[in-house]
Amino acid sequence: MNWTSTDTWIVVVGILCAVACALPGCFLVLRKMSMMGDAISHAVLPGLAIAFIITGTRASVPMFIGAAAAGVLTAVFTQWISKLGNVDRGAAMGIVFTTLFAVGLLLIRQAADNVDIDPDCVLHGSIEFTPLDTVAIGNLFIPRAAIVNGSVLLLNLAIIIVLFKELKLSAFDPDLADTLGFSSRFLHYLLMTMVAVTTVAAFESVGSIIVIAMLIVPPATALLLTHRMVPMLVIATATAALSAIIGHLSAIIVPTWFGQTSSTSTSGMIAFAAGLLFALAWLFSPLEGIVTRRLRRSCDLQDPELSTN
Amino acid sequence: MPSWGDIVEVLLLQNYNTRLVVLSTTLLGIAAGLVGSFLLLRKRSLMGDALSHATLPGVTIAFAIMVALGGDGKSLPGLLLGATISGIAGIATMLLIRNTTRLRDDVAMGFVLSVFFGIGVAALAMVSRVPGGNAAGLESFIYGKTASMIQSDFIIIAAVAGIASLVSLALLKEFLLLCFDDGFASSQGWPTLWLDIALLALVTAVTVIGLQAVGLILVIAFLITPPTAARFWTNRLLPMLLLSAIIGGVSGWLGASISALTPKLPAGAVIVLVAAVVFLISMLFAPARGVFPRIARHSHLRRKVDRQHLLRAAYEILESLAGDDEVRNTPFPIEALQLKRAWSQRQLKRVLRIARREDHLEPAGSGFLRLSEPGFGEAARITRNHRLWERYLIKYADIAPSHVDRDADLVEHILGAELVSELEADLETEIDERELTVPVPASPHLIQTEPPAEA
Amino acid sequence: MHSESLKSQSTFPPKSTEPRPEHPPEVPLAIHDLTVAYHRKPVLWDVELNIPEGKLVGIVGPNGAGKSTLLKACLDLIPKTSGWAHIYGKPYRKARHLVAYVPQRESVDWDFPVTALDVVAMGSYRRLGWFRRVSRKENDRARDALDQVGIAHLADRQINQLSGGQQQRVFLARALMQDAELYLMDEPFAAVDAATEEAIVILLRSLSERGKTCLVVHHDLATVTNYFDWLVLLNMRVVASGPAEETFTRENLQKTYGGKLSLLEKAAEALRHSIE
Question: Would you tell me which residues 82-141 of chain A have a C-beta closer than 8 angstroms to some C-beta of chain B?
Fold first, then answer.
């Protein structure tokens, strides 16, 4: 294996992005809205297309704004349809994001044939190329993606620290939040905006599959390992960071098993690594891992006093 | 612009080039509409989302194996088989997570979606570098390439769609039970796990053939949008299923036809948009559950309640003015009304304006109100109905709350004449002591005419 | 005087139903002309209610009588079709600090990764306001509140590991944390063990001794007169409201629960209990 500074940067970007997603992801999972990340990452397409049509460039700022706006709109439309139409939220989400995605496809095909934001590209951005696009800070050349994702991470962290109790309350008992004067609707949209901005920032630089996976899998892993809120956030962060490291390593190593010399998609492998960590927690969690439970049961059987308890 | 003749030709399936595409998306729409209905009722609409992503590793690995065996790697049956296998693996993972952890459906779906898709992306990156294999076409398989459909593809799609539709109709009763109350179903000895698996297998089948026809993302819409749109029109299962199949079929037919007529529009996207338009219309205007009809019903109810409140309050004021005498229609002060009803000045104005428009009020001196003759009659009738309802609540308290419906103008419509005369008799005996022959029975409870007393 | 008051009312936004000025501000809960309708059906009709201060109030009535709806309408959790509910003479949004609400236990997800102490500390959030975090002082108060309901030793348990009765006590402790004047409780006695039931009763009494007012939705006729000193009999509208002994009459019960034989017998038995 030939580890270069490029690989280091890839891992750093991966970690920043994974943790930036895992933090709001915890609240998404607790609100039973895990699929929102997936929905948003598909639904941003028309935002990208419209931003392109208006500005005529692929400059990242208008694209970012367009995409983030489309992301927030996904959440708003989903909420409207599920509240006004009395529709199951999953179904509402599915309708909104597929429709927006279709609109985006049409816009792109109509706008110009030479646009190079094709849908495939939106789905798999490539973290491998992030070290090529750098920004000079003093003598240091830092990948732009690291700065973008790092800022989003700091922003998310700041919001969660400042509004921790409000976010917790509105996820646990929205009625109580409303009766205490904390608008649960405001907090809902705040979280959705966080998710939209995080998603857009991340996939613009590293591809959407990392985003979708990191919004769900590390928080789910953490839920298997703890029954507390703060440890959940910490474990989710650690799992996300670990997935990024293992993911990139395996992207380099796994292809060699099949006789290939070049590495495979780091994004895909990060998602896969997160899945592996989840599987470990699933099997061996001290709280309720499958293996742990089985071991405990066999211990209980040997100890009659405990088993009668 | 395509000519009128072209349009008719495509829509009527007379154009050989587009016939297969239009027919297959129509069949797909019907099958997805049926299967998706159960998913919606089971509150797992996004299962299609998870499943369609979960097919990616299967597709790529099947491709790799076929290339390794010396094939060209893009034979449709082989790819579909791979997609099915990894779809089933995805379902198994989902069910395992759900049954062995405290995590919910949405997490299980999101997990399968992202991890399987991640594996697929990684595998695709490796497969595309396999020498000899031309993986370029693989992407178009995943993202749908409706235009390039050949006869054998069509036969597979038609067969799978047909079988999926027939099976979901055959298992109608079982699926209904599963969706409505799986706990009850399993207590009745139904194999709910197997039913779940059967349902998800149907979803997998529809998703896999949909991949080819409309692409990975847009097949999700096929499973969700038609049933959700159909749900707005009816509260019953069978009509919903049929409607959903029709909406799915029509979306597939129209969408593919429009796309065939305008070369730049990809079929999948147009189909999804046609379905979305149907959904929007259904959501806003469907009489059974649509938004506008519901708002209209609600404001109608509000107006009705206001009107009844006004007339009944007026009647009760007249009653208290009359004391023990017969109730007569006399002017009364607005203030008395405001003591009874918590209307703001503005609401009061609105209520009075409506009442005047309905000729329930006659002009009286300033600060006073006077009912018109028909208004007085209406007030007496409403007050009588109200008291009958109250009486009914008292006599049949246990069943009453679910029956009481003040929206129905006449008590008789709901309770039947016999019960009403029984209630009337009850009220009569209660006021017999006062030996009065008023047309309206006395209220069974004390009517508050004073401001709320300080406790 | 009246025209003046009308003028002041008309400046308010269209849907507001402000109190008439003559309304007594010392009444913990005053409801006037309250009608609530879901879809086609009215659930509550013309509710008129005045709850005196410092009383333990039981709200009883058959299923579907609108008991929970009444509490939710008072808390602005559901829209009112007409009428108003005022807490110490003010609409709810201006009197949040005076009210604590104990919802039905099923209303939240008990798998949520928080401890009993965390949930109780939520009762202090309104006082803390936005951004400020729960300090040691609040946590100590939360422990005290848990102590008052007799489960201080369970403070650090995840809420999923508590029994139904213990979960109910957590909710009560959370309400205690709010340090309100008026407590609205939705079926706190539903499906709890005998020890919890007793703990709740003791808690209610101590609240009432401190001059707090408690409104409790209750379903067990046999214990009504033992637990409460004021009763509201509700069946879509208020059948009777008054001191428990006076209100808990066969006639009123019949009006509330109707002529069904089994229920009448139950009521009669309950009456006998209360007399003994």
Answer: 84-88, 90-95, 98-99, 101-103, 105-106, 109-110, 119-120, 124
